[in-house]
């Protein structure tokens, strides 16, 4: 009799959880349906509340350009330009870690949200708010808020997927961070005057309902595949935890971190001294070819080349460098399961930025005496920040990849480390923004700073291929001592 009860226990627990889950989804769905009807039939108390909240927040936000800029930046975390690349990146990471089931869950749930948003907006046809001082605009109809729906779905399903990789004491903080992002995005949509409060609440309710439905379907899929059905507090696939942990087999990222930090700081000061010395010499020397090269390149200007040079210049600006870094670092962590290369790249870019800003402020060199297509810039000419950032980024990536990839295609990255800075440098001089010696300063910054980090961080001290990293992580997961690959 005991065995029979024990055998039926998983089924009973699954049924209980299913009923509770179904009740929760039904409650959220009813709340959304009720709100939809109130909006559709213009219930006056709701309209008054929406108008009051929207007008009050608009008066607050419109009083400061800084507040508007901050709100727009936060709002971008719920836009398609952020959410779609984020989901694509996470899907690739899951496939690298050989977890296709949660990857498929992300794709299906994300596509569903993309379809729900415009469909319901077209069905309801609610117009966006008209505020006294417009500070932002958005296309399409208003209900429900696409940013609120998208952020709830994307950050919610990322929590469900990566929850097993978190230690239990960190899980509430992880969930809280995701909830804070979702709440902040919803707040900004009302404060910017592009949505009513009910639009945001409707987006949240619809998002919760949708991820609940897809999570429930995923649990049914697991049961049909003969897998245990865990509580949602353990995530979608609890057994995926070891595969989703960033670097389970890695020891100390940097031994003696305080000593290493002091070495890096001393190296930074040394590199700054070299840059200042070169910048001071160039300012006193003022070689004739420095203005001659931008003037010569100016003779080739055409509307077509101007546009191409603008695109090439954009490849070295802050947004492009940041985007490439944010893509490479998670993929590197997924492939090689080591924090050290990620730390190396992060220190490379932080050091490059601070060295560039300090050197530019100290040297104070004027831009070339030609027409400058990019207008007035906030920093001086020496060294070139665009070129230094491009050199540092691609050189650091090449250093990391060459030690960990055995296939012939790895030579793409050293080639990019040469081609990309050349293209950016040529475009910056063509556009009249830099002298050749500014390029020399960027080259000195890159070579000296990467040398400092090479000897302090030693990014390839325990370099492994992706397969070696996976084997070592599996050994660590099963409690065996992993072999160190030098």
TrEMBL record:
SUPFAM superfamilies: Acid phosphatase/Vanadium-dependent haloperoxidase (SSF48317). Residues 465-486 are annotated as: Disordered. The chain crosses the membrane at residues 20-43, 77-96, 103-124, 144-166, 173-194, 200-218, 264-282, 318-336, 343-364, 384-402, 409-427, 439-457. Keywords: Membrane, Transmembrane, Transmembrane helix. InterPro entries: PAP2/HPO, PAP2/HPO_sf. Pfam families: PAP2. SMART domains: acidPPc. Residues 103-215, 342-454 form the Phosphatidic acid phosphatase type 2/haloperoxidase domain. This is Undecaprenyl-diphosphatase. It comes from Actinoplanes italicus.
């Amino acid at each position: 009799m005991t065995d029979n009860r024990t055998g039926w226990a998983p089924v009973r627990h699954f049924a209980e959880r299913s009923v509770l889950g179904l009740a929760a989804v039904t409650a959220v769905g009813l709340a959304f349906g009720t709100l939809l009807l109130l909006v559709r039939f213009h219930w006056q108390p709701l309209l008054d509340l929406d108008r009051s909240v929207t007008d009050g927040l608009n008066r607050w936000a419109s009083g400061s350009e800084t507040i508007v800029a901050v709100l727009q930046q936060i709002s971008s975390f719920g836009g398609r330009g952020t959410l779609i690349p984020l989901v694509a990146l996470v899907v690739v990471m899951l496939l690298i870690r050989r977890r296709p089931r949660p990857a498929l869950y992300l794709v299906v749930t994300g596509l569903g949200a993309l379809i729900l948003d415009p469909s319901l907006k077209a069905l309801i046809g609610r117009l966006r708010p008209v505020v006294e001082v417009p500070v932002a605009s958005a296309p399409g109809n208003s209900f429900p808020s696409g940013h609120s729906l998208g952020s709830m779905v994307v950050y919610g399903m990322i929590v469900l997927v990566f929850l097993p990789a978190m230690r239990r004491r960190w899980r509430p903080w992880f969930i809280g961070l995701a909830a804070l992002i979702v709440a902040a995005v919803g707040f900004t949509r009302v404060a910017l005057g592009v949505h009513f409060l009910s639009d945001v609440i409707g987006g949240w309710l619809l998002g919760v309902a949708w991820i609940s439905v897809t999570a429930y379907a995923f649990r049914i899929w697991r049961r049909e595949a003969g897998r245990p059905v865990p509580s949602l507090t353990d995530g979608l696939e609890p057994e995926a935890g070891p595969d989703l942990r960033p670097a389970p087999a890695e020891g100390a990222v940097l031994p003696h971190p305080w000593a290493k930090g002091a070495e890096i700081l001393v190296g930074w000061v040394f590199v700054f001294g070299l840059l200042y010395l070169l910048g001071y010499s160039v300012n006193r020397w003022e070689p004739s070819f420095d203005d001659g090269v931008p003037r010569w390149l100016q003779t080739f200007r055409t509307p077509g080349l101007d546009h191409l040079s603008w695109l090439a210049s954009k490849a070295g600006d802050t947004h492009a460098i940041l985007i490439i870094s944010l893509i490479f670092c998670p993929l590197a962590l997924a492939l090689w399961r080591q924090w050290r290369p990620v730390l190396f790249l992060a220190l490379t870019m932080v050091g490059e930025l601070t060295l560039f800003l300090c050197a530019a402020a100290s040297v104070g060199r004027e831009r070339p005496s030609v027409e400058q297509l990019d207008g007035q810039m906030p920093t001086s000419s020496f060294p070139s920040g665009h070129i230094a950032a491009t050199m540092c980024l691609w050189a650091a990536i090449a250093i990391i990849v060459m030690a960990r990839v055995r296939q012939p295609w790895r030579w793409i990255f050293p080639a990019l480390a040469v081609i990309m800075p050349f293209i950016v440098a040529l475009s910056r001089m063509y556009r009249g923004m830099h002298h050749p010696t500014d390029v020399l300063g960027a080259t000195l910054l890159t070579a000296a700073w990467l040398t400092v980090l090479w000897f302090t961080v030693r990014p390839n001290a325990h370099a492994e291929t992706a397969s070696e990293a996976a084997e070592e992580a599996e050994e660590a997961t099963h409690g065996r001592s992993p072999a160190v690959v030098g």
